[in-house]
Amino acid sequence: MSLNKISFVCIVALLTIISVPACAQDLLAKQAPVDRRMKMVDTLALRPAMENEEARLTANALYDDWNNTYAHRATELPDSFRINLKHFCMPTESRVVTSNFGARWGRAHKGIDIKVYIGDTIRAAFSGKVRMVKYEAAGYGKYVVIRHQNGLETIYGHMSDWLVKENEVVKAGQPIGLGGNTGRSTGSHLHFETRLCGVALNPALMFDFRNQDVVDDYYMFRKNKYEQESVVANQLRGKIGNGGYVASDVRGETIPGKRNAEAKNKNEESKNAEIRYHKVAVGETLYSIAKRRKVTVDELCRMNHLTRDIKVRPGQLLRYS
Fold this sequence. Notes:
The chain is of the alpha+beta class and 321 residues long. It has helices at residues 3-62, 226-237, 247-250, 261-272, 286-293, 297-304; strands at 80-84, 97-99, 102-104, 107-109, 112-115, 121-123, 128-136, 141-148, 152-159, 161-162, 169-170, 175-178, 189-196, 199-201, 207-208, 213-214, 218-222, 277-279, 317-319. The protein is built from 6 helices and 19 strands. The termini are far apart.
């Protein structure tokens, strides 16, 4: 083979070798947007499954067993635990708390009593699995216990009927029973408990029945601060009266004009003496809240021990009366 031919072959081979990485790079460059799109699709598809798995692990980490024989059994509480309150549903549309969590009649009251009428719909507060559907004549009456993916267990007592069965998986907001007056009860109401590791926590730490909302997206339980926080929660979102409520009161509607004068005056006196709070929404300021609640900024600052230049945060509770 001549020198010219050998040179030609070498040049062709060299160009071929150089062009391969270039082609490969072009191919990778074209493929990159497709890979990013596929990764995004995979992430969106897997996210619910990942969240469910995370939630399942959260609940499983707190409880050693699944038992349908006891309503609650206290185990060791963690020093701290973050409870996810997102994706909630108020268990009842009633805004009337008739009895607080805490000491009552010489004994501990482990939940909150909310005024409901016989037959009112009671709903699951969060998604979860029904652990118990039982009747207890000297206590809860007809009740349901649900273990939730956020680590909580909720108990719904004194119902007139059940709408779920044990081991049934339920979604937040799903009807689970009807309001009633069964068991140890002096009038139709819902006894509602929130428990962590079997230990009763004050529902007012998490639920604001008057405003039909949760207090925040999360509640950080701390063993060394819980009792003090529970007292404060009762003051902010606790008891607003006992007995004598008609349906419009329970559902937050206007009091009918036909109510007798004595009951109306009694209700007005209660309202006048009541401390009221505003839950700060995104974008609100002291000035916009003062205007909405018809008070001055100075009054807001005085009642909440604030300065005029402070920035309020979403979810913060401000007293305005």
